């Protein structure tokens, strides 16, 4: 693939991941195994509230084809097929879920040194179509995204964004929800080894006049341990500790509390991921 601006969903992704990734209020246990045939197997058990769920996923790669099949406790079977370079500089993704026969989706991504285009269409009788385009470079990119309902003939969404990236910092602005929402974020690495990172994000919903400002950061205590924290203007405070207990196996402990209701708002999450 090219070293172009990336897909539209990459705009603002670094800041979003730092503020949301690995924060959880669930208890989750995951085991990764690999078969002699080259199949990667993942078994996951999740306890959310009083409800326990789980799934088993198998991932297999053959040349330019990636097959991902997942079975869950609700008897659903989800399959994703990814084909790389069927045509030059393209990636094709086909997905469907059984027994929901209307869940099929086909997506084609095209990568160029200065532009990326994606088209996704639902595989049902009344298909919705999503398209996006990003132009620029890995350092500066501008993109737009739109969704169209072929049944009603109306646009379901249109979003525009811009991102600027440097080795030690990146910033982005997104205008979405048909112009009703605004989100700006900035992420900065505080040292050359990227052990310490700070992030800030501000979002506004114009129709409800709601503003949210969030600050956070991460710090690598050593090569095995990372701590993260975040706080927004509504008083929601979150923190997590992630530690590699044995090679490739990670323990994550996370928590969130509303500082305005300390006595009844504490949420606690625990994730264990074991890899061979």
UniProtKB/TrEMBL annotation:
Places the protein is found: Membrane
Alphabetized GO MF terms: porin activity; voltage-gated monoatomic anion channel activity
Gene3D superfamilies the UniProt entry points to: Porin
Superkingdom field: Eukaryota
Record's keyword terms, sorted: Ion transport, Membrane, Porin, Transmembrane, Transmembrane beta strand, Transport
Coiled-coil stretches: none
Any single Gene Ontology cellular-component annotation: mitochondrial outer membrane
InterPro entries for the chain: Porin_dom_sf (IPR023614), Porin_Euk (IPR001925), Porin_Euk/Tom40 (IPR027246)
PANTHER family, per the entry: MITOCHONDRIAL OUTER MEMBRANE PROTEIN PORIN 5-RELATED (PTHR11743:SF23), VOLTAGE-DEPENDENT ANION-SELECTIVE CHANNEL (PTHR11743)
Membership in a protein family: Belongs to the eukaryotic mitochondrial porin (TC 1.B.8.1) family.
Descriptive protein name: Outer mitochondrial membrane protein porin
């Amino acid at each position: 693939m090219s070293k172009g601006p990336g897909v539209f969903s990459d705009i603002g992704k670094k800041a979003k991941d730092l503020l949301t990734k690995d924060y959880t209020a669930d208890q989750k246990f995951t085991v990764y195994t690999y078969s002699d045939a080259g199949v990667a197997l993942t078994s996951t058990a999740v306890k959310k509230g009083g409800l326990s769920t789980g799934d088993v996923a198998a991932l297999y790669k053959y040349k330019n084809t990636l097959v991902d099949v997942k079975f869950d406790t609700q008897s659903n079977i989800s399959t994703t097929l990814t084909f790389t370079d069927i045509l030059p500089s393209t990636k094709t993704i086909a997905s469907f879920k059984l027994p929901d026969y209307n869940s099929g989706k086909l997506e084609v991504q095209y990568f160029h040194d200065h532009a990326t285009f994606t088209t996704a269409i639902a595989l049902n009788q009344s298909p919705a179509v999503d398209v996006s385009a990003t132009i620029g470079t890995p350092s500066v990119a501008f993109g737009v995204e739109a969704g169209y309902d072929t049944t009603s003939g109306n646009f379901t969404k249109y979003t525009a964004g811009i991102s600027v990236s440097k080795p030690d910092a990146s910033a982005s602005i997104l205008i979405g929800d048909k112009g009703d929402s605004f989100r700006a974020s900035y992420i900065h690495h505080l040292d050359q080894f990227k052990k310490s990172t700070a992030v800030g994000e501000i979002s506004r919903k114009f129709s409800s006049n709601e503003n949210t400002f969030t600050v956070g950061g991460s710090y690598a205590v050593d090569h095995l341990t990372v701590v993260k924290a975040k706080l927004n203007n509504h008083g929601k405070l979150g923190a997590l500790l992630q530690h590699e207990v044995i090679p490739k196996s990670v323990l994550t402990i996370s928590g969130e509390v509303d500082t305005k209701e300390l006595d009844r708002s504490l949420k606690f999450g625990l994730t264990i991921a074991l890899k061979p």
